[in-house]
Input
Amino acid sequence: MKVEEKLALGFFRVDDKSHITLDQSACRTCDPKVCLKVCPAGLYSISEEGQVVVEYTGCLECGTCLLACPKGAIAWEYPRGGCGVQYRYG
Output
């Protein structure tokens, strides 16, 4: 089984509060916006208003975005207890 197939079988218990927040003032000055490329789940995008947005509900909790952001604009923590991703294949 390929990694992509294993990840597709993950279960997400969605919290009503995001565990990822963005400092939009720092995001505006960032070029290139590394978060758009490094997230393995592809959760980061640019809104119609030109702001970086994140769809936290599909987060794989790897922390890649936090480490890769050159501006320190991402505040990331694990989801609250009982929420987040539950892997079925390690």
